[in-house]
# Entry
Amino acid sequence: MVSLTGDRPDPAGPALLAAGLAARESRGRLLALLSAAVNDLTAAEDALADAFERALRTWPQRGVPDNPDGWLLAVARNRLRDWWKSAAARRTVGLDPERDAPAYVQDLDVEAIPDRRLELMLVCAHPAIDRTVHTPLMLDTVLGFTAGQIAGAFAMPTATMATRLVRAKKRIKAAGIPFRLPDRDDLPARMAAVLEAVYGVYVIDWATTGPQPRTVPGEAQHLAEILTGLVPDDPEAHGLAALVQLSAARAAARTDPGGRFVPLAEQDPARWDHELIGRAHEHLQAAHALGRLGRYQIEAGIQAVHCARARTGTTNWPVLLDLHRILQTLAPSLGGGVAFAAVTAEVNGPAAGLARLDELLTGTGTAGERFQPARAVRAHLLERLGRTTEAAAAYDSAVALTHDPAERAYLQHRRAALG
# Structure
């Protein structure tokens, strides 16, 4: 194709895209492989970062290798090998013939190597590590979220979160925590944190799509399915798998063919993935058969009621209200409270919904003020009540907190329609 402006294509473009894709989709898996080999999370992170840096320097000139993940893994392993052979390492680490054998890119089939991410997640949930940092550590190391993204999800300053993450990684090395699956008797104590981390992936991605969306809904689905295989008798693992699948089933309908945001109540059920909805119901049935109710099962049940509109043509708001009331009693949260207020408005009117929302926000301080869904719901309820001046201010606040361009444009349109 000839450029009308005379500009030549950027030869670095494909290389940068390939490196970005590997960073998004393969970093966690590669880090888990390296960490399991050396029992040192920080060293593995440094080696992998060095491999990505070399990729950005060499791929634009030499071309993208046929096996990018294998290339990155080989370079990272060689980086670790250089460290092992250094004077400092020789004083503390004995050479391992298998570990220190030469590595060749053509011999590395990363897809054939078992996925070690779950083991790394369970390492992050070890009892020797502060329980409050279990989930953030998994989100950072295994799933590739930044300290800023994680801090936003946990409503704390980025610097505070970054410090906690560094401290936890040092603790893993100092405590000599083994990088392997724990004994089955130890799994229940760590599983809650692992489930929360997978849930965190789902929540953070859903709230921060941005101009370059991640592929994390598929990642969360994959990890949730792995968990149901590891602990098939855990009803919450099945509940989480169902929750992620039901939400992912509606992903394509979040925007119309023109890229405009479509609220859930206005989505076309024909665009939902009904096969995925069916798989989610299988997980819900498996969870129900185990007879122990939990948070993720209730959240999945809420999503299932929304998806039932494809079959009934209407949304059963009273049932949703009951489910949200149970959820807020069992596992209260800011996001759950906002959704509870929105459903209250559908059943008991916008004034009742707004009263519930304002009561919730009164006790949350700055966290509630910076929570975008709360601002958006408040704007909508004020608009329904005819309080246009207050609604306009609330829409302005929601727009300022919105990262998704399509959703921002939708809110701006609603704001403009107020006149």
